[in-house]
Amino acid sequence: MMSGDGAQDGPDALLAAIAEKCGRSVEDTRSVLTRHGIGITRSLAVPKRLCLRSLSFSGEKKGGKAAGTIAFDWPEIGPGIWGITSGRNLRGKSTVLGIIRWCLTGKRSGIPAEMAEWFAAVRLTFTLDNELYEVEIANAVAVRGTLWRGVDDARRVQATFGSEDGFKAAMSDLFMMQLGLSPLVTHTVRPTGESLDQPHDWAFFAGAMSIEPNPEYLFGTVAMSALPTRMMQMFLGIPWTSTNADLVAAKGRLRNQATQSRAVAKGLADRRKNRIEALGKAVAAAEAELRTLHTPAADRAALAVANQVYAKLEARRRAAEAKLAAVEADVAAASEAAAHAGRLLQDFTDDRAAGMVFRALEPVCCPRCDEVFAEDRRAATRNEHACVVCRTAEAPEQDPSEAEERLRAAADLAAGELYYQRRRLRLAGEALGSADTASKDAEKVCAGIEARLAAPSRRTELEAELIGNKARLEELDAEGEVSSGQDDDGSVIEAALVVVEDAFKPLQESVLKEVSDLILKYAVLFGVENLEETKLSGNTTLRLVKAGVRTSFGSQTAGERARLKIAATLAIITVAERRGVGRHPGLLLIDSPGANEMVAQDYDKLVAGLAGLPAEFRHLQVFVAAVESPTIREHIPEKHRKRAVGDDYLW
Hints:
The protein is of the alpha/beta class. It has 16 helices and 16 strands. The protein has helices at residues 11-22, 26-35, 93-105, 164-178, 202-205, 227-236, 241-292, 296-359, 375-384, 401-454, 458-479, 489-525, 558-579, 600-611, 613-616, 630-635; strands spanning 50-61, 68-74, 80-86, 119-128, 131-139, 144-149, 156-161, 184-189, 195-200, 210-211, 531-536, 542-546, 549-552, 587-591, 621-627, 641-644. The protein has a 6-stranded antiparallel sheet with strand order 2-1-4-5-6-7, covered by helices on one side. Strand 8 (184-189) and strand 9 (195-200) form a beta hairpin.
């Protein structure tokens, strides 16, 4: 078990405690931690003090009534409180602080974008303890320059850079190494779902040196998860800070990986389920279609039967055709007979009618020679019943009714026979039509079966597809549900977090109690009225008691938050100084503390309190950018002020 004070416990003891906590061997535990990039280090460092020594920059202001040459030079700067003042606002004070931050971090974030091409060259010298450094930006537009170390003959190149990224890397390498800082790694998930580790180096830590007019956060200028807490722990010199930060990042990484693994597993399970359903439907459809398909053997048997049926129907058609031909002959004979009988009857009736006509005639002359017959001749022939022309005796007239009846009966009989034969012809035609249709239908059936036998079989394709789909279903059933695949590294990380927190928490609580007391002291010194109690917790929450009422940092006015943030930063520097640990470089850049509607009396207390700090903090350096005022003139010596008078600009 750990001793609990964090000071006596070394890496080996901490690793053994983690292994015991998670029930695994030390080597196995070390392997897990190494796999996740977690180092077991106490993160102790001896504080180094940063002090600016000089600042100069040149260039050309473009546009507007303030256009002109830039020539700013501030030599011989040292510890203590320094003022950057002007007679009016918007005269370049904040930009000077921005250039300082740019030179120290390589990140040009405090300089307005419209001024990006105004500056030609920038030079800042500073010391870390007794070592002199110089940032020389030879081309401020292209961000090209050199970081020098040492002076005169001992001066040498620490780093060169040709871009903003290169500049940031050079300054980060210097300060992270010199101040004993370790990158803070957070694990983030982007909206796209991409998971990544995001390291935060010197550009992030340098935020602890800036005090903005209306601060939202007690430490730094970034509200990102536990980063302000890590910053506070780092600057306080709390042991195991880097290890704890790495563990928190690893926990987030594992949590996200587990979430992604579960999502992948769910996606695979859903796809498996959908695949099983689709294959089941395909199998059922193939089986149903196979039931509708004929087998070749069945088709051949059906063709034999169909051929027999066709042969019978074709014989029937030919018989019906022959019968039709015979009936057609009978119809022709009956038609001829009926016509003949009709002619005989017609001739008989015509002859009888003609005889009656001619006998009724009494010619008066010869039809050949026109000789007129004498009356006596006509009388003689009448009496003799002879023809007056040729004197042929007239045959005695017989009864025609018997002959006519006989002829009419014969004609009726012939007509009846013709009707009968025609009826036979119609029936024979219908029989032939029916037989022909049946024969053709049977022929089509045979042709269809023959075509089906000759065509490629869909059955073979379906049977192969059915076998394949059934095999895939069996494989999916054998696979079972997809596992998320999550390992148990998380248990080691969780155990390590508990052990590491147990290692530094008692010391942290003791340090935070000391810091809280100092925050109260400095906040009252800076004019925070009615403040009775302050308590800084491990998550950087600052609880207050004002005039008997419990409140918090976030509930205060902008001016009070600024003073509380300065007080908290100074308290951390003080405690780190007393304990000989911590990493705050001892530089504060305070921008426009009077811009947040702070009353004159409170503003005076803040500046007066800051002015008195050098007596307590020999290495502290504070820069205050403010409008020129009696308070500034009273508490900051003129030789410690870079000032612009009236409507003038600082540069």
